Amino acid sequence: MKPFSWTPELEARYQETSRIRTAESAKLACMLALILFPAFSLTDWFTQREHFLVLSEIRYSAVIFFVVFYFGANRTKLWSIAARSSLLLIFIVATLSITLMTLVTGSEESPYYAGVNLVSLAAVLVLPWGAIEIAWTSLLLFLIYVTGVVVHSHFRILNPAAFMNNLSFMLGTGIIGTSSAFLSDRLRRGSFERSLQIERSVNILSKEQKSSSRDLETLSLEVHQHKVQLEQATRFAQTAQAEAVEALNVRDEFISVSSHELKTPLTILKLQNDYLRMNIDRLNFNEEQSVFLRLQTHRNENQIYRLTRLIDDMLDLSQINANSLKFVFADMDLSLLLFEMLKKLHQPLSDAKVEVETQITDLLVGNWDRLRLEQVLMNLLTNTAKHAQGSKLTVRAYRENHEVVVELQDTGPGIPSERVHQIFEQFTRANSDIGIAGLGLGLFISKRIIESHRGSISAKSTLGKGSIFSFRLPRDILWQPSDGI
Question: Is 454 helix (H, G, I), strand (E, B) or coil?
């Protein structure tokens, strides 16, 4: 077998895969900016109250830009045509906005400079680029901040020590990001090269087997050669598989650590938001300010709830992949839980104009994990509110032999037949509408929870008529996972 060489054709093939990943990364970066920019406006209220209105104008101007850019890029297919330029523009606008907030809140002495570091780190995590491209991107973001501070101070820095401290942090972030990008690019290229080597080995074996019509001695020699090549291909496959497993473990560890780290600031934000909401009437605001703050706290509450659910799903996903999802089994009544969940989600279902009818048998008792089943019902009911607005939802629960069956039938738009068998997979949504948020983890996690109860979950749908989601649970689980699934 000829030694592997990285030809221009292979480089073009590799760049095409990078272009596809870049287009997906651009969408993700824009969605993160849409969520995080307004989410941190509550911090402005408590730390920079005298500048709150100006900071809000900057934040929501950036949000308006991201919204317009997101939908415009989807309409014009800009993600595919100019993915790199789109990503760069998103990071530049984010950095410009943060730099403006820095200038408003103290220039070089403002703590908002840390936002530029976060944008630079986000570029490393999101962009599937090499070290040189990441280095130039970090340098560009760095220069935007430096230029803004220097020009704003008329080329006379009032606090050089603070300014140099900020620059050192940014430089360190850029160096770390560039090094990480270099290692990531090497790993991606190595994995791509090994997959091509395996593909080439398989193709060679296939061609040689079809053309082999020689005598026994020649055939024996060829079989030996094929065996050697197959052993090489197997070694390549084992190496690639080991590296893929290692990469998945690193990813899951990163998701788990990041999710745990994000829990603390989200909890603080929720407490601050709740405190502000409960004390608006005591803070001597005029009516217009009170109305504005109530609206703002309501929006913040929705964003915090969405981020909390996203983080919980990411934590569950990492635990599922690590076979460490925890369960606590106890006797419970599933019919009571169903009524509690319908009451808890009455407002979202009502807002979605979903008419609910129940056909629930009393005393559906079994040995299950109450919190995990609540999570399953939450996912199924919120999916109905998202994807079947204006429909009728019939919730049934009954006994069948030694099982309990729960069915949720709606009269919504239904799911295309080619997608029904995919909706319980990771990162797959029943409806691909860009206007509906979510990572597509809820049904995947629900399926693993039900299967861990030795049950089953399924979906049936007719396009234009509606869908039926149902799951079955054995009333007595003889096997219980002690450490997870």
Answer: coil
Query: What token pair was written down for 18?
Result: 């990078």
List of residues 6+ apart from 126 with CB closer than 8 A: 25, 28, 29, 32, 87
* Cα–Cα distance, 220 to 223 (Å, whole number): 5
Alpha-carbon distance of 358 to 397, in angstroms, equals 9
CA distance 7 to 5: 6
Angle (CA) 266-272-275 rounded to 5° is 140
Q: Are 109 and 48 in contact (CB under 8 A)?
A: no
Q: How many helices (H) and strands (E) does the chain have?
A: 15, 7
Whole-angstrom distance, CA of residue 384 vs CA of residue 467: 9
- Cβ(137)–Cβ(143) under 8 Å? no
String of DSSP letters for 370-393: HHHHHHHHHHHHHHHHHHSTT-EE
Length of the chain: 485
| pTM summary value | 0.43
Q: What is the DSSP string of 283-299?
A: TT--HHHHHHHHHHHHH
Q: Which CATH architecture has domain 330-474?
A: 2-Layer Sandwich (3.30)
With tokens 């993915």, the residue in question is: 83
Per-residue pLDDT tens listing for the chain (485 residues) = 455 566 777 667 766 776 677 667 767 777 777 777 787 777 778 778 888 888 888 888 888 887 887 787 777 777 666 666 776 777 788 778 877 888 888 777 777 767 777 777 777 666 666 777 777 777 777 888 788 878 877 777 778 887 788 778 778 777 877 787 777 777 777 777 777 777 777 777 666 666 655 556 676 777 778 777 777 777 777 776 766 666 556 555 655 555 556 666 767 777 877 777 787 777 777 888 878 888 888 777 777 766 776 677 676 666 676 676 788 999 999 999 999 999 989 988 998 999 999 999 888 999 999 999 999 999 999 999 988 999 999 999 999 989 999 999 999 999 988 888 888 887 555 555 534 444 567 898 899 999 999 999 999 999 999 999 999 999 875 444 444 45
3-state secondary structure of 40: coil
| Domain(s) of CATH 3.30.565.10: residues in the chain | 330-474
DSSP lists the bridge partners of residue 400 as 403
Nearest to 321 by CA among 424, 375, 252, 372: 252
Task: Say how far apart CA 475 and CA 332 lie, in whole Å.
Answer: 10
The SS3 of residue 73 is helix
How far apart are the C-alpha atoms of 224 and 160, rounded to whole Å? 72
